[in-house]
Design a protein that fits this description.
Layout: E1 4-10, H1 15-25, E2 31-38, H2 44-51, E3 56-58, H3 67-80, E4 85-88, H4 97-102, E5 107-111, H5 123-129, E6 134-141, E7 151-158, H6 165-188, E8 192-195, E9 198-201, E10 204-205, E11 210-214, E12 220-221
Parallel strand pairs: 1-2, 1-4, 2-3, 4-5, 7-11
Antiparallel strand pairs: 5-6, 6-7, 8-9, 9-10, 11-12
Helix pairs in contact: 1-6
Length: 222
């Protein structure tokens, strides 16, 4: 089985992209990053990908673009590099239903909350405002419902006294760099697949996401 070819979409620094790409380059994930694309030509993550020798492509939103025409150019960039599946890693645009449909069961995202709680933006602020005691991130398949696709793996971290948005975001982000590569590894090893919106891991239907717990220092709890 030949290595999976990944297309990764970013809008900013691309820290999750780097976590995945470095593991691929080290042989820890049996996949290749075919291309990193961004809607922002100035996104720092593009330069970071280039430094690793990975092909990059900027697909900015033009003034006369609709969501559909922009996503058609995004799809063309991914297809020109032979991407088998697409990973959203801090990509900050809502995708058209046509794009999502084309990549159905081959499109993953990571969201900084314990979905279905706190969809959308400002999740760390929402957790603190609600005085919740735990937070985390979710890797999920993408559907036309915003942050609503079936979840595969979640990280859980404690919210501690004195946390602000920055400290909490940093704690969650560190776990993202663990769980997103894990899911990509499962995908590359054919342990994870999704058929008609129903994810399976090792042949078993995932009725709920797997969960990995971390302590306040980012150590995985067994």
């Amino acid at each position: 089985m030949k290595p999976l070819r990944l297309g990764i979409a970013i809008s900013g620094a691309g820290s999750n992209m780097l976590a995945i790409a470095e593991r691929c380059l080290a042989g820890r994930i049996r996949a290749d990053v075919a291309v990193v694309v961004s809607d922002r030509p100035e996104a720092p993550g593009l330069a970071r990908a280039q430094a690793l020798g990975i092909a990059t492509c900027a697909v900015p939103r033009n003034p006369d673009d609709t969501r559909l025409t922009h996503d058609a150019r995004l799809r063309a960039a991914l297809e020109s590099h032979g991407a088998d599946c697409v990973l959203l890693a801090g990509y900050m645009r809502i995708l058209s239903s046509e794009f999502v449909h084309h990549y159905a069961d081959r499109l993953l995202n990571i969201h900084p909350s314990l979905l279905p709680a706190h969809k959308g933006l400002h999740t760390h602020r929402a957790v603190l405002a609600a005085r919740e005691t735990r937070h985390g991130a979710t890797v999920h398949y993408v559907t036309s419902e915003l942050d609503g696709g079936p979840a595969v793996l979640q990280s859980v971290v404690p919210v501690i006294d004195g946390d602000d948005e920055t400290t909490l975001a940093n704690r969650v982000r560190a776990t993202e760099h663990v769980i997103y590569p894990q899911v990509v590894e499962w995908l590359a090893d054919a342990r994870l697949r999704c058929i008609a919106g129903r994810p399976e891991l090792d042949g078993e239907l995932l009725h709920a996401p797997r969960v990995t717990h971390f302590d306040a220092q980012g150590r995985e709890l067994v």
